[in-house]
Amino acid sequence: MNTPRSLAAASLRRPSEPSQPQGIYRSPPSNYINVGSFSNSDTHSLCIPTTLTTENEAYRDSYFSSCHPNAPFLDIGFDSDVERLRSDSTLLFLAILSVGARFWSASSKTVCWLHPRYADIVRLLDAELMRVTLRPRPDDQKLETVQALLLCAHWMPFDVSDTGKRYRSRFSEMGAWQCLGLAIRWATSLALERSCYLSFQQPQTATRLDVRRFRTMLYLVESDHYLALSARRPSYLNPTPLKEVLENFLHADFVQTTDIRLASLFRVACGAHSTGCRPSTIESVEAFDKDVELIERQFLSSLGNKSIDTLSQHFPFTSLRWYRLSYVCAFLDATDITQRTGEALTWAIDWASQILFHLSRPRYMRVDSDTPENVQLEPDPSVVDVMSFAIDHYFVVIAYASFVLVNSWLSNLMDFNLRPHITRSDGALSETASTSLLFRLVDVAARTLEAASPPEGHLARRYVPLLRGMAGIISSSETQIHGSSCQNMSMATGTLDPSEQLQSNLGGDLWEMWQQAGLEPIIWPGPLDGVYEA
Predict the structure, then answer these.
(1) For residues 437, 440, 446 and 449, what is the CA-based torsion angle, rounded to 10 degrees?
(2) Largest CA distance in the chain
(3) Separation in Å, CA 96 to CA 164, 180, 242
(4) Cβ count within 10 A of residue 164
(5) Under a CB-based contact definition with an 8 Å cutoff, are residues 521 and 502 in contact?
(6) How many whole angstroms separate alpha carbon 365 and alpha carbon 317?
(7) Residue 23: is its pLDDT beyond 50?
(8) Do the beta carbons of residue 399 and residue 230 sit within 8 Å?
(9) pLDDT digits (tens, 9 = 90+) for 164-185
(10) Are 64 and 58 contacting, i.e. CB atoms less than 8 angstroms apart?
(11) DSSP 8-state secondary structure symbol assigned to residue 167
């Protein structure tokens, strides 16, 4: 039987494409490129944008200036040395170039937004990934291999058509999970966790390599827990040893400004680890929320008057709110049906709406009665700028946050204006849906993704039709009435499986959009779960 997860995975393939295994890899091209046969100058000549004047400009501006702050596990001062990295790790060198090359013309937002030789860079990267995976050499046993795999998991390459005019992201949550698993396997074989812990028991002796190793492991552990919550899978890495020496790391030499933010994320992952990313009680959700609140306060106070990286001002409403939302959704997904309409649902609505509110200008710290009515929310330019270079999964965050709200509304768990526990009546349909808070939040999410991406091919564009479809359902009174009828019929028959249930809730057109977006849907809470039983 097809499940929502399998349907979503299948939808990533266009009808004309042959079936291929899930993951980031593709079979080597017939004209297999042996990376080792390229001289340094040959390999590098593929990757320098013609619009930039020097190698260092191309390297820094393409990745470190814009992309690195979104996933700050590399050492800016060390890894931005082009010649050193090119000779030390071909894989990491190509991974960085493949990320930078997809943003080379981002400022112009033109159709030709990829580097003209982007497809060549990706073919080189694919070949090197295949070699390292299937025929690794002793020289591959190094930190840079783990870092390259992390980059590929967060910014998956794009496939380019033969004509060079069509693009498609390879992203899927399953592919990200597989790639992150490879990174964890390499880190385990290198004993990075143990070496990190031992190095910072006496921080005064820690070298730059020790700091680079520790920073990478912090990010790998955090990514493991982040994706575990998102994909409803168990986490693998134990954060406890690193947590014990975290303060020593933050006071060592060679730390970066972004390490404060990374350490805060790691502490949140530690909180999720205590329940295996599978909370089973409302008390555990409440305790996790209090932990995150404390971490947020500590993060903001630690900044003081210091100069901070751009993402720090958005941090509480991006990563921290998403951890809260995914944690409570994990609880709602597995808990007894009697607890799905209580405080946990209120928290989910609040945190999902805060994520979407943060996309707007002016930004609202909370959703409350003081929010202006009937005022269209406009995308915040600073958020658009950040999201233009965001890791792939952040676009999933926006889509999921919107879905949590729309699904809660369609399931009669809240009204147009995010007020929970209110069962809609016919009188509620007299409200103007197109000016409701729910519509405005979903609408600003769609327009933010449009503003943050090129016209076609970008991963964000995969989710725009989904968000537009949600907004269309909200604004259509006829669809609202139909949705209520579908729910009543489902309750009466009790015959729908979870995938049919979601299709009934969202409508056939939107269900198809959801599949095309490649999302793995959150099924909670549906009308068949007994929520409406007397």
Answers:
(1) -90
(2) 74
(3) 21, 16, 27
(4) 13
(5) yes
(6) 9
(7) no
(8) no
(9) 678 888 998 888 989 999 999 9
(10) no
(11) E
Query: Domain extents for the chain?
Result: 4-11+20-148+157-187+298-529
Determine the pLDDT at residue 271. Answer: 95
Residue 378 DSSP code: E
CA distance readout (Å), 177 to 128, 131, 230, 281, 517? 20, 20, 10, 26, 17
- For residue 56, is pLDDT > 60? no
pLDDT score, position 476: 81
Distance CA 99, CA 484 (A): 45
For the record, the structure tokens of 447 come out as: 């327009």
CB atoms closer than 10 angstroms to residue 451:
19
- Identify which of 320, 316, 460, 462 has the alpha carbon closest to the alpha carbon of residue 391: 460
Average pLDDT, the chain: 77
Most confident of 151-165, 256-270, 373-387, 489-503: 256-270
> What is the token pair recorded at 202?
């006496």
CB count within 10 Å of CB 163 equals 6
The structure's pTM equals 0.81
- Hey, what are 76's tokens? 């800016």
**475 HSE (CA, 13 A, CB side):** 13
CA angle 319, 320, 323 (to 5 degrees): 85
Distance in angstroms (rounded) separating the CA atoms of residues 153 and 125: 13
pLDDT tens readout for residues 350-400:
999 999 999 997 655 445 545 556 678 999 999 998 898 999 999 999 999
Burial 42-58 (b: 16+ CB within 10 A, else e): ebbebbbbeeeeeeeeb
Rounded distance between C-alpha atoms, residue 85 and residue 384, angstroms: 31
Distance linking the first and last C-alpha atoms of the chain: 32
Please tell me the total number of residues recorded for the chain in this structure: 534
Residue at token pair 């939302």: 325
* Alpha helical stretches, state H, 53-191: 55-59, 76-79, 82-88, 90-101, 118-134, 143-154, 173-189
Give the distance, in angstroms, between the CA of residue 176 and the centroid of all CA atoms in the same chain.
Answer: 10
Task: Give me 338's structure tokens.
Answer: 């009697």
CA atoms of 137 and 8, how far apart (whole Å): 36
Distance CA 40, CA 513 (A): 45
Looking at residue 356, the DSSP 8-state letter turns out to be: H
Distance CA 384, CA 360 (A): 10
Is the sign of the CA dihedral 208, 270, 175, 310 positive or negative? negative
Tokens of 344: 């946990």
